[in-house]
Amino acid sequence: MQRRMTWKEFCFILPLLLLVSVFSLYPIVSSFVYTLFDYQTNKQSKNALYTGPVLNASLYAEDCDYLVHYLKKDVETVDASDRATLQTMMDTLAGQHALYADEKSTVTLSGDTGSQIAALIAQTRRTVETLGARYPDLRIVQKAPTLLDEMETCLITGNFVGLSQYGTLFQDTRFGQAVGSTFLFTIISVALELVLGMALALVMDKAIRGIGMVRTTALIPWAIPTAVSALIWCYLYDGTSGIVAALFTRLGIIASPELLLTTQGGTMFAAILADVWKTTPYMALLLLAGLQVIDRGLYESSAIDGAGAVRTFTSITLPLLKPSMLVALLFRTLDAFRVYDLIAVLTKGTPETLSIYAYKMMIGQSNYGYGSVIVVAMFALVALIAFVYVKVLGAELIRE
Amino acid sequence: MKKTLSILLTIALALSVTAALAEPVAVKFAAQGDSTPATQAVIDAFNASQEAYKVEWVDMTNDSGAMREQLTTSLKAGSSEYDILSLDVVWAGEFAASGYIQPLDMMLEDAGLNVADFNAGSMASGMYNGKQYVLPFFPDLGLLYFRTDIVSQEDAAKLVAGAYTWADLLAMSEKYAGQGGTTAGFVFQASLYEGLICNANEFTSNWKDIKGGLEMMKQFVQSKATPDNILNYTEGETANSFVKGESVFARNWPYQWGVIKSEGTITTDQVAVAPLPGGDTVGGWLLAINKNSANPEGAFAFMQFLNSEAGQLIMSEQGGYLPGLNKMLTDERIMTADERLSMVGFQNALKTTIARPVSAEYSKVSDALQQAIYPFLNGSAEIDATVTAVEAALAQ
After folding, report:
1. Measured between beta carbons, which residues in chain A are less than 8 angstroms from residue B193?
2. Cβ contact (<8 Å) for A239 and B229?
3. H helix runs in chain B, sequence order
4. Does B98 contact A at CB distance below 8 Å?
């Protein structure tokens, strides 16, 4: 039974809690808030989080100014009877322009200002249509319809959509494919890394001559920045001059050398191979740390009892390595699940994993709302993976 | 002591103010590096032509996708870091819709300029909700390059006149591949990127014959007349193959003419250009003014200068850029400076230009098209599903 924390003790951890909330919780909460809005920075009616009615004042003022500008010349050309109508229209619009000309962005609409503006736009449209029948060549007649359409978009009602974007996510086949590719990449690469990393760790654990050299050399792939190693592999996989592509074709693994970087299966294979090459040493390093804390005495006793190498491995090494394996697998799985840089450099985005899809949505298409939904879904999947690992592999570790 | 100090400070301040008054106002121009001296020359000429403004070139990354991201990140934050922006033709709709750039109609009218004076494709790309947002930086168009020393005169005449189909080109590619030291018949851009859309636009005759066009494109990909790794080809690989004399035909932009001249193992005497069968995709760059710019007048003055006769002459003579000011296309001086304009095939191509889909969400449309077309070309999707996906993308 744990003792309750005193007030004084709590004061000591308060700075830490504050840091955690600023640097960890705030981004998560704001990502979640984004998912509730149709937030797209390339549309002026959706480029912020609008909960209530606002007016895109700068664009509205600009449109009024355009209409006034066209009207100025048109007033001179119409008959005297219509001049007054156009003059009134021009004065009203000039008044609106003056009212909002100094606004840099949006203003909150209070009371019935919004409906007044909507009525003004509708009325201007009617007047222009009436005039259009008699003066089809007037500039205002030709230009006003598109400008009035744009003015209507200035009246922003809000872009809060609640949880509906999560609904879209479940129908999004591209998201489904991205989840599939991400899991496939993660499972195969981590499994290979675990087996190869374990083998490497067992070798590096032996006290043989020149082991320092072996350990250093084995770590080189891990020391190379991912973007650089992705470029190296890009050359190796190249259809015309890549040695790996040529070798695989010779061995009959692929039908022709260009397939590695152009087909869905080829790119997946290429990305997994490059990732395994790069991160096996990291896996080995984490496992080696675990191997080194195993009591050597246990091995001596098992040798005396006559246990073979296989028995020793399954009964001593594996069980005692479990905590290290859990940590290594958790790290590597989460890392592989978020893979971005390797694929972005190697193939410019195929196979499309969740990170790549989220990036394309947010940065490529400026759709931060839906992009955030993908990110939150990734967050949920990552949490799920961590949960499964801890449940399956580490239940007793946590209890201890 | 204190008094002397304050007097000195006042003098220093006064001096710096007068100095600032005499100094021209700096106008920042965001543009990619130029392998020719033209951009710098036109900036220098503008700076020398007047004293009010001094244009400073901010060098942007040559990776267009990365440049767009850099610009949108800056503009989204309301930054006035750049005054003049150079934009790829397909970005203008999005930038205008986002409210990042200023409409120019009033300025154009005050300067006595008409939209019709400039390259129609470029100007149309920057027309959004009835407002004109851009002036041309330099227009660009897709062309067919071919080897006159390999292709027979009869075929060459057909090509230059544009009296051929994609199927004819495929047949010719297969016929001539391997002749004259070449290894490939035809090279084009089929990698998974924007260039794929430019090429598909030409293969499908501006998306009028989607099924036929894409099936034709796949025939080219599968043909022995194109390199095995054609699905990795961008402009770089295309130019590399053609200027080294490894291919008979190549689809590329006008800049390849300059590459042949400067680093080709073949010479321009061995090369001619022709319009493409399905039309020639318009590309190139535009100039626009940041909405938050502190010096829109200075920015416009530079844009106007670049699009004046003097500016166009510099761009053409020193960089080989096509004029965006229509009347200069037939200008004697430019026709002498730019030999391409005197080619019949080139002038024919200028008449059959086609635009890519114009949309405020172009990047989304383009991405959807790439995701639909590329899997068909590499064999992991069927034609019917692809056509449906392409139609859906275009309807966005």
Report:
1. 348
2. yes
3. 2-22, 38-49, 64-76, 92-97, 105-110, 120-125, 153-161, 166-176, 194-203, 210-222, 235-243, 255-263, 296-306, 309-319, 332-337, 344-351, 362-377, 383-395
4. yes
Question: Under CATH, what is the fold of the domain A170-399?
Answer: MetI-like fold (1.10.3720)
Which ipTM did the prediction report? 0.77
Widest pairwise Cα distance in chain A:
117
Percent of chain B whose pLDDT exceeds 90: 65
What is the distance between the alpha carbons of residues B73 and B67, in angstroms, rounded to a whole number?
A: 10
From the list A238, A350, A365, the residue facing B363 with the nearest CB is: A365
- Taking an 8 Å cut-off on Cβ atoms, the answer to whether B99 and A59 are in contact is yes
Q: Is the pLDDT of residue A399 over 60?
A: no
- Interchain contact, B72 vs A149, CB within 8 Å: no
* Chain A residues with CB-CB distance to B192 below 8 A: 347-350
Q: pTM surpassing 0.90?
A: no
What pLDDT sits at residue A94? 94
Q: Which domains does chain B have, with CATH numbers?
A: 2-140+283-353 (3.40.190.10), 143-275+361-395 (3.40.190.10)
pLDDT of residue B36: 82
Question: Is the CB of residue B110 less than 8 Å away from at least one CB of chain A?
Answer: no
Contacts of A62 in chain B (CB under 8 A): 103
Q: Taking residues A249-276, report their average pLDDT.
A: 88
For chain A, give every domain's residue range. 54-156, 170-399
